[in-house]
Amino acid sequence: MSNDGPCQAMVNATVPLSASATEADLNACVPVTDAEKGSGVEACVPVKNGRVLVFGGTSDSMALCGELEKAEVNYSFSVATEAGRQMAQGIKGELLVGRMDVEQMRHWMQDNRISLVIDAAHPYAQELRQNVMTACHAINLPLVRFERKSESFTHPLLMDATSVDDACKKIKQSGWHKVMLTTGSKDLATFCEQLPEQHIIARVLPTAEVLAQCEALGLGIDHIVAMKGPFSRALNQALYASLLPDVMVTKESGQAGGFLDKVQPCVEQGIPCIVISRPKPVLVGEYCKIIQDITACSEWLQRGIGN
């Protein structure tokens, strides 16, 4: 693959990449169990000799790549950012770095004879997940979506928001001034635009790309906590005690995203916490499936290669 395309291909190891998939490849499928029937997959999903494309950039997606390697499945791994590239240095598949729109995805899938797509992107990466689903549906390509399990926590200081806009509205209505964001860098521009009077403190990844974004938004050194997770409960506790925010904003990121380790020490210190609700997964197409457990995914893959 040329480096002139929408994303740069980087081969990290010696996993062979097939040039094409034969009819036999596409017929080497994962059998569907009775429990899986009715979940969106009513036929087999090709895996054994085909080529799999994984969209990711999270710890979940890295774990799934590891399961593909154990199952000796030929795969490519697509990440959007420099942070994703750094996280994926240890994988054995082909690494694709860069953003693709629907048409670029569709062409890449067809040109590289992809037989199955696994969407293991961040649960809040709505645009990416929609594009992946649309591209797969356009060419009748089987899609498996990994949805990390949710974690629930109830407390009077914990409040839900349906979106970033809704979270900003709640902050302005409540009159909070110092706002700590643990929502990543994607929505920083929206928070800064809608909360010009608030003192925003953003916890973000310490990459040049993200820090340049913060600088462009006018967030100086008193507004940035540049750290890479996972963050322990004790670390979060110490950070909140040091920064003393009026409110903390986070996302329902599940165990892999350290959700409870973020919100429990927050409310223990009497700090209100706004949780932006996770988008509900929507799948279209005949061959679609949702998986929520890495172990189940591993067993599913092992069945597909005849073990």
Describe the structure.
It is a single chain. With 307 residues, this protein is an alpha/beta fold. It folds into two domains: 8-149 and 280-304, NAD(P)-binding Rossmann-like Domain (Rossmann fold); 158-276, Rossmann fold (3-Layer(aba) Sandwich), CATH 3.40.50. The chain is 34% helix and 21% strand. The chain contains eleven helices and 15 strands. It has helices at 23-27, 59-70, 82-87, 102-111, 126-138, 164-174, 188-194, 208-216, 233-243, 259-268, 294-304; strands spanning 8-11, 29-30, 45-46, 51-55, 74-79, 94-97, 114-119, 143-146, 158-161, 178-181, 199-204, 224-226, 247-251, 273-276, 288-291. The strands form three sheets. Strands 1-6-5-4-7-8-15 form a seven-stranded mixed β-sheet, sandwiched between helices. Strand 5 (74-79), helix 3 and strand 6 form a beta-alpha-beta unit. Helix 2 runs parallel beside helix 11 (294-304), helix 4 packs across helix 5 (126-138) and helix 9 (233-243) packs across helix 10 (259-268). The longest helix has 13 residues, at 126-138. The two termini are 32 Å apart. Residues 1-6 and 8-46 have low confidence and may be disordered.
For the secondary structure, the number of strands is 15
Number of domains: 2
Write down the overall geometry: elongated
Helix content: 25-40%
Report the total helices: 11
Q: Outline the biggest β-sheet.
A: 7 strands, mixed
The CATH H-level superfamily of the largest domain is NAD(P)-binding Rossmann-like Domain
Overall SS class: alpha/beta
Protein name: Precorrin-6A reductase
EC number: 1.3.1.54
GO biological process, one term: cobalamin biosynthetic process
Pfam family, one: CbiJ
